[in-house]
Every structure is written in C-alpha cells, then in structure tokens.
Design a protein that fits this description.
The chain is of the alpha+beta class. It has helices spanning 8-14, 17-24, 67-81, 91-99, 181-190, 192-195, 197-206, 213-223, and strands at residues 53-55, 86-89, 104-106, 112-120, 132-139, 141-143, 151-156, 159-166, 170-173. Strand 8 and strand 9 (170-173) form a beta hairpin. The two termini are 17 Å apart.
C-alpha cells in the first residue's frame, strides 16, 4: 500500500515507495508483489486476500484527517478485523498505532534523520535479530504513547516506540529499511532549507556508515 506520490525530481530516479518496497522484497524468494496507491484512492476490495499487507511511508501526517487518509484508516481497520497480517513502515507504523489508540504527533526534538542506531528491545519468536540495528530514518512525527496491545521491539533514544508488535498479526517500525542511502541523500537535499544546515550536514555524514536495512528485510522474510 503506497501512501505517497513522490515529487517528479525524486520519482524520476527513485520511482516510488512501492517500487522501493518491491526492490527490498526481492530478497524474499517467490514473493509476488501487488501495489496500489492510497493517495490516489486505489484500495483493493476487502474480499481480495493477501498473505501480507505492507503500508509504506508518506510525507503526510498520520494524525491528519484528510479524506484519503480516513478512507485508508477505515480500510486498515477492516483488514485488521479480518485477521490480515500487516507490516507498517514509518507513516504505516504511525497509522497503525493511531488505530490502536496511540497518540501520534510532531516529535519535540524535531527531525530524526540519517543512519541511526536502534536497540532491539524484545525477542520476537522465530526472528533472530542482532542487539542493535543501524537503519535509515527520515521523520519529524512519531508515536508518542504505547498503543493498545502493542509491544515495543525496537527503540531509539529519541524514539521510544520505534518498533511495535501486535501479537503475531502486525509488525511495524519507524525507520526505513527499504531506503537506499542515495535516496535519503536526495531527500535530505530537497529538505535542506527546512531542516537547517547543521542537521543536514550531520545526517548526510551519517550516510557514510553502512546500514542494515537489507539484513532486516532478509530476516523478516523468514519470520513472516
């Protein structure tokens, strides 16, 4: 479920969030990917079955009440009621937390950008994760309270609810394991004036360190 339409300058080289997810999921043997765009209103019928629904990032605010977003919330709520397995990334992580009663808002510390080190907080049955994961992040909104039924599995010092699990049905995370360093560098350049020169330079410098997004996706293939 693609939740954004990228600006032409970014889309020309990097495609879409759906395409980034398709590339990341190439690590999953035999995975067949169907994509649709929630912003454009292309939600699959509720009787169409999937092994997994993946909800992408977005520049939109997960706490907003835009018509397309409210339609997506209703669709996701119905899917959850059906027992659909979900994986939420960034905006998807926040949106699913909102559905479970959490507060989602602007982070008091502002933008979180670059390659950040996250701490694994819980052992997920069947998922062998390292104690820390370096993952790419780009967000100024985040989950501010523990959702009903949620368990924290990933944490950052500036983002205490960075990864959430809801039983065996739903797994979500604030960082972007599907991002490439090149895409995040382009996104930082686009937002340079907005985030400020100091934050821009610090985030860009952090991209010199390799990140573990591909590792996380390969491990998730086994778990899911």
């Amino acid at each position: 479920m693609d939740c954004d339409v990228l600006p032409r300058a970014l889309a020309g080289k990097h495609g879409s969030y759906a395409l980034m997810m398709r590339r990341a999921l190439s690590a999953w043997p035999g995975c067949e990917v169907h994509s649709c765009n929630a912003v454009l209103g292309t939600l699959p019928p509720l009787d169409e079955r999937f092994e997994l629904v993946l909800v992408t990032g977005s520049k939109a605010d997960a706490f907003a009440d835009e018509p397309w977003l409210l339609r997506l919330l209703d669709w996701l709520e119905a899917r959850i009621g059906q027992g659909q397995q979900l994986l939420g990334i960034c905006f998807g992580h926040q949106l699913i937390a909102r559905l479970h009663g959490a507060r989602v808002a602007r982070a008091t510390q502002g933008w979180q950008l670059g390659a950040l080190d996250y701490r694994r907080e819980a052992v997920l049955p069947g998922l062998s994760l390292p104690a820390t994961l370096r993952l790419l992040a780009s967000h100024r909104d985040q989950v501010q309270s523990l959702p009903s039924g949620g368990q924290v599995w990933l944490r950052h010092e500036s983002c205490p609810y960075a990864g959430l699990r809801y039983g065996k049905q739903i797994l979500t995370m604030q960082p972007h394991p599907e991002f490439s360093s090149d895409y995040l560098a382009a996104l930082l350049e686009k937002r340079r004036a907005e985030i400020g020169e100091t934050a821009y330079r610090q985030a860009l410098a952090s991209l010199a360190r390799s990140h573990q997004g591909p590792l996380l996706f390969s491990l998730l293939a086994d778990w899911l």
